[in-house]
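Consider the following input, taken from an annotated entry for Transaldolase (Aspergillus mulundensis).
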Amino acid sequence: MFGSNARTRDDNLPVPRTLGPFRDCTSNQAIAFAELSKPKHAGLIEDSLKEALKLASRFRDIDYIELAVDIAMVKLALKILPHIHGHVHIQTNPNYSYSTEKTIANAFRIVQIFKYLDLGIETTRRVCIKIPSTWEGLMACRTLEMAGVRTLATTLFTFEQAALAAEVGCTYIAPYVNQLKVHFEPGFVDPQKLLPLCVSVQAYYEAIGARTAVLPASLTSTDEIFALAGAHHITISPGLLRQLSTPVSGPVTASLFDSELPYLEPKLISYVNDEAGYRGAFGRADNGAGVTKLTQAIIIFNSMQEKLIELFTAQQEMLFRK
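Applying the prediction step yields:
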């Protein structure tokens, strides 16, 4: 899967042409900010602000600038859509991570923007909404999947989150092999990479017949990719894809999927009607590490959302001066 740091950007378009084909392409607020900060996208931001004015009467529940950010993220996704198979992934506003209602509204808004900008798009087949794996986010996934909107449970760090994600019917989950801060804090190395979690969750899904696919994300090396060979999908950045395209000298890391795994009884773990039980189990997972990592990831994405708002506000002020 063409993903994690694919960044839905123009200068990555040669990657699917030369190294593909790829199934999906991911995005998030950090990727969008890195791309939209480039001067060449000033026109895209301006167009998004103008489109937001046109659509403001349809979406009275959110700020005009926030709407323009959603539109710009969709525009970036549409640029790369013709060059991949499958879905483009758009992440909901992380500020809504603890609100089921606002997350659902945001997801439907993104789908409507896709349809507004591309009348011919088959959103069920080509659009997937990424939602942080809080209890509230996963309950939003449940509603969206029942409505035909494909979802991916992102920022996932524990087996408990994965079990609930399958129970609510998520199309994908994205276990973060490394904590999100590994991409933002120079020199930080995750002391507990979650490679084994990806293997155990996939085995569990296969044992219970879940339709949810495992899509590991936040990888930092080709060794991690080799260790996960056998996963349903893998999110790989353009830099790592290029490394994989070159000849390998010497032995490569063995896949964890080739190791002997204990037999799993096909027993469904159910949390969907037990919020208190889920919160307790999730809070205890890895001695609370899952909660810490999830909170940290949401904080980072919140800061990226705020940077996007600041970027668009500055562009709006420039337009008013013209």
